[in-house]
Specification:
The chain is mainly α. The protein is built from 13 helices and no strands.
Length: 238
C-alpha cells in the first residue's frame, strides 16, 4: 500500500493528493512548454489512476472526504467572477443585447447540434437527454438532466469533459478561425464550456472573463427554459 492507513482516513489525504498532483502537473506543463494543456486536465486522470490502481486500499470515499472541500471552493470562486463583472459593467451594459442574443443562439445551436449528433451515432434516448445540458455549469446541468429524463451522473461527466476540452482548445480554435474581439471570444467560451472553459480567460483578458462569467449564468437559464421546449420538436423532426 502506497499510503499509510492513518493518512487515508484523514481529510488531509484528498486535499494533499489534489494539491501535490496539480503542482506536479503545473511544473510538467511549464517544463515541457505544453501551454495548450491546462494543468488540471493532466491532474484529473492522474488522480483517477492513483485511486484505481491502489484499489481497494484507496477508495473514492476516502479521497472525497478531503477533496470535497476543494469542490466547495468552486462556490466562492464563482462568486469571485463578480469582480471582473463590476470592473467591466459599462462594457456589459453597452453590449447587453449582443450578449443575451448570443447566448440564446448559442444555447439553441448547442442543444440542436448535440441532439442531432447523438441521434446519428445511435445514442439511446436517455443518454441523448443526458448530453443536452453539457455546456451548463454542473449543478444546473444535473438538475436539467433530471427534469428532462437524463442521467444526472452521466451529465456531470459530460459537463466536466466539455469544460476540460474547452479550456484546452477554445482559444486555439477561435484564434485559428480569426476571432479577435474579446466580447465574442468570452461569449463563445462562457456559453459553450461554462466555468472550466472560462477559467482559461483569466490570463487572456479581463473583458473575456467578465463576458464569459455572464454567459455562464445566462446559458444555465436559457438551457433550463429552451431544452424542454426544443426537445419535443427535435424528437419529431429526427
Amino acid at each position: 500500500m502506497l499510503f499509510p492507513e492513518a493518512l487515508l482516513n484523514s481529510p488531509m489525504f484528498g486535499i494533499g493528493l489534489t494539491i501535490i498532483v496539480y503542482v506536479f502537473c503545473e511544473l510538467l506543463v511549464n517544463r515541457l512548454e505544453l501551454n495548450i494543456i491546462p494543468p488540471f486536465v493532466l491532474a484529473c486522470p492522474i488522480i483517477m489512476g492513483i485511486i484505481y490502481f491502489q484499489a481497494p486500499h484507496i477508495t473514492y470515499e476516502q479521497y472525497a472526504s478531503g477533496a470535497s472541500f476543494i469542490n466547495f471552493l468552486l462556490g466562492p470562486a464563482t462568486v469571485a467572477l463578480a469582480l471582473p463583472l463590476y470592473r467591466n459593467r459599462k462594457t456589459l451594459k453597452a453590449n447587453f443585447f449582443i450578449i443575451v442574443s448570443g447566448v440564446l443562439v448559442a444555447t439553441t445551436v448547442g442543444i440542436t447540434a448535440i441532439f442531432i449528433c447523438g441521434t446519428l451515432f445511435g445514442a439511446s434516448q436517455q443518454v441523448l437527454l443526458s448530453l443536452v445540458p453539457k455546456s451548463v455549469t454542473t449543478p444546473i446541468a444535473m438538475d436539467i438532466s433530471n427534469v428532462i429524463g437524463g442521467i444526472p451522473s452521466l451529465t456531470a461527466a459530460c459537463v466536466i469533459f466539455t469544460g476540460m476540452f474547452g479550456s484546452t482548445f477554445n482559444h486555439k480554435l477561435l484564434e485559428l478561425l480569426g476571432f479577435k474581439n474579446d466580447i465574442a471570444i468570452g461569449l463563445a467560451i462562457g456559453a459553450s464550456s461554462h466555468g472550466l472553459g472560462t477559467s482559461a480567460c483569466v490570463n487572456k483578458s479581463a473583458v473575456q472573463l467578465a463576458i464569459g462569467g455572464v454567459a455562464i449564468g445566462l446559458t444555465g437559464i436559457a438551457t433550463s427554459i429552451l431544452a424542454p421546449l426544443l426537445l419535443p420538436l427535435l424528437t419529431k423532426l429526427f
